[in-house]
């Protein structure tokens, strides 16, 4: 208990430092008549900072504070996510607009999932993430958003439950929350981030670090090229992947098929959502 109180105090201090840092950064950007996007995305300055030789005291101080900040995010995540009940994560592009077919489909999928008794976890941002939270919200289910601080694209959407809107600075902490508290993964069309989340889940299941939860790829026309490449190059030509590993994936095209895959999986193990 004493250690937990110590960590919570460090969480509070870390958050206060971040608030001050952000205020200073915004003020500097304004004074230099720069857009905040330009300030954050100035690659040359980022590279110079990364390559600049630092003293041992600077390294030790920065790393020590980073440890507490990382611990703070884990503690906050565990305390909030530990009581959400069974959920399914929905991954997908942040760039999809509400009129896009995959946005509409993701909303329908999340609605059906929530009506089937599952909560929905998304990355908390716009696009497919917003559609997922919106569907869960309209379906009366748990709607969780794991937001990440980014210089572009990401801002939390209005369909997340007020007490389940979490913010992260570190991608790896956020990933832990996704895989630790999900009982299934629905992967909509997306970019590098979506691919990263897909293969992270596959790797953890393949190496038996997490349970063999269903991974559902939505949109056969979108995913068929990737699956063909895995079959022809990774499996048949280079032999870097076992053929059985593809059995981890299910490819579907409708919201009903998504719910069917989830229900069949849980019926097989005599399990069901409990909220």
**Cα shape:** globular
Distance between the termini: 30 Å
Mean pLDDT: 84
Secondary structure tally, helices: 10
- In which order are the strands of the major sheet placed? 4-3-2-1-5-6-7
Structure description:
The protein is an alpha/beta fold. It folds into 2 domains: 2-77, no CATH class; 85-268, Rossmann fold, CATH 3.40.50. 56% of the residues lie in helices and 11% in strands. The chain has helices at 2-31, 36-40, 43-51, 56-81, 101-115, 128-138, 171-180, 192-206, 220-237, 255-268; strands at 87-91, 119-122, 143-148, 165-168, 185-187, 215-218, 249-252. The chain has a 7-stranded parallel sheet with strand order 4-3-2-1-5-6-7, with helices on both faces. The longest helix has 30 residues, at 2-31. The model is unreliable at 24-40 (pLDDT under 50).
